[in-house]
Amino acid sequence: MTTGTYAAEALPRPRRSWLPAGALQSATWVLVVVLVLGPFVPLLYASLRDRPLYEAGGVFTVDPYRQLFGDSAFWHAWLNTLGFAALVTAGAVVFGAAFAILCGRTDLPGRKAYSRLVLLPILLPSLGMVLGWIVIWGPGGYLTNMFSQRLHIHTLAIDTIPGMALVEGARLLPIAFLTCQAALGRADSALEDAARSAGASPLRVLGSVTIPMLRPALLNAATLIFTLSIAALGIPLLLGTSRNINFVSSYLYNLWTSAAEPDPGSVSAGAMMLLVVATGLLLIRNRLLGAEARFVSVTGRAGRRELLSLGGWGWPLAAVLAIYLVFTTVIPVLGLALMSIVTVLTPLLAPWHLLTWSNWQALGDPVFRRSIENSAIISVAGAILATALVALATLVAHRSRFPLRRTLPFVLLYPRATPGIIIGIGFFWTYLVTGAIGDWFRGSIWGIMLAFVIRNLPFAYVVMYPTLARIGEELDRAGRAAGAGWWMTCRRIVLPLLRPAIFASFVLMFVEILNDYDPAVFLVKPGTEVMGATMLSQFIQGSIGPVSALAMVQVAVTVTVLAVGAKLFKIRAMGGDDA
């Protein structure tokens, strides 16, 4: 008996559904589109009014754009942003591709372990990692002072644009690594074998065959990393403020929160400009995704994976990769942990002479305590909501005949390419113009939860879709042949098979919502604090020790949840469960 026949026989006698499939699919599409794109409508409206939306009256005008374009500081912020994003992209793509080639196409010692360890910077809390860099490598940082005073070696100042690019590049490098690794995994090694047979050296093979095959993947990764870089908020606020270095994101943040007279219209106009740029880059990336499939040499399941021999270079290159991981990931995390248990971190005195528990005791302060409690509640509830919504939307997009189903993948991926600061401003205006419902969301943690959920929908989708693609559509046809409707077939056949990916999506959504902070900076108010926003505001006020302790709470929860999820649900970095 075939699987499809068994699935069909397992179905109970079909009953007439109280909700037609077309209505459910339409409702799902409308809900996703409204939640993702809806907040941008009030944002656009706010950028074209002569007064804030919370003031009565007002007429349409382009004055907010005129004022913004006439501010030289805005254009200077754009230059800083573009220069920063270019440096981040170049560094992350070059080294991410190199690591992917070493781990995926060579006999590098420990390559499987490195393939997992190199992903840590993007899995750990981004704000916590930045704080760790500041504690160790920042102005007055522990190793910065040690190298300068004892070894007379000057390290790169991370409060400059190149230094900030190094911090962000180390965090985003895993994106290039994963993109190139996926391309290499789909490519046959026959061309590389032929080049070796012709007498080419391993270096020549890499330069003339392997890297050209990666060209579309490199362009794809570069576009995504550049898009994420222009949205950076924590780095310019924490590192650029002391040197008066503004990016577009920090310029808009300061214009909203620190100006003598806040100008919501200009902030909204700047957010719309940033949104247009991010959307354009996402459209370019989607075009490149199509090019990638046509460029790489791909065979069937039997495609060979012959590894290039590094010879005597294997162990030295493995050591270089280990040193990179130690200095960019391990040391910042250890520095953050150390800062959380000392009064001050300085090379002039041994840390054990400065031990204190006051930083951890400070977490009992109402603001810190509420931040932890609110983040925990938001993460659990948001992960459940997002996982359920994405599961249903993925079924509509890839397992239905709904006319607009092909637009859903783009809409589901769109929020992650949209700067978090824009999502926060968009939801702020949305709650403001939607009356009593909006007031309730704006005054509770659920308004922040909704913004976090929308921002992180792509993570659930990229986990869920690959697993769904491996479930044969003949099961759907068998169910329909037995008389079951679309929803009963999905509920009784497809969703049970999708269960491992659903659990994996929940774990990743929990972690991402827990660590998110960008959208909350425009939505948080007394009583609705979350960990990321509290860390950002408290650090700016100079409360480094307690912030380090709070960041370690984030790191500990993230590592624990990911470890448990990887063990129980076999979570993989790029979607789905193990096949």
How would you characterize this protein structure?
- This protein has 579 residues and is mainly α.
- The protein has one domain (3-9, 23-42, 92-301, 312-348, 361-569): MetI-like (MetI-like fold, Orthogonal Bundle).
- The protein contains 28 helices and no strands.
- Helix 11 (190-197) runs antiparallel to helix 12 and helix 17 crosses helix 28.
- The protein is globular.
- Mean pLDDT is 82; it is low at 1-11, 291-303 and 572-579.
Number of beta strands: 0
Helix content estimate? over 70%
Structural class: mainly alpha
CATH class: Mainly Alpha
Instruction: Spell out the CATH superfamily.
Output: MetI-like
Average pLDDT value?
Answer: 82
Question: Number of DSSP helices?
Answer: 28
Low-confidence stretches: 1-11, 291-303, 572-579
* Molecular shape: globular
Ends apart, CA distance between termini: 23 Å
CATH architecture, by name, is Orthogonal Bundle
Question: Main sheet?
Answer: none
| CATH fold type | MetI-like fold
Q: What is the domain total for the residues? A: 1
How do the helices and strands follow one another from N- to C-terminus?
HHHHHHHHHHHHHHHHHHHHHHHHHHHH
Would you kindly provide a brief summary of this structure?
This protein has 579 residues and is mostly helical. It has a single domain (3-9, 23-42, 92-301, 312-348, 361-569), classed as MetI-like fold (Orthogonal Bundle). The protein has helices spanning 3-10, 21-37, 40-46, 63-69, 72-105, 111-117, 120-123, 126-137, 142-150, 161-186, 190-197, 202-213, 215-229, 234-240, 248-257, 264-295, 314-339, 358-361, 366-398, 408-417, 420-433, 435-442, 445-469, 474-481, 486-497, 499-515, 531-540, 544-569.
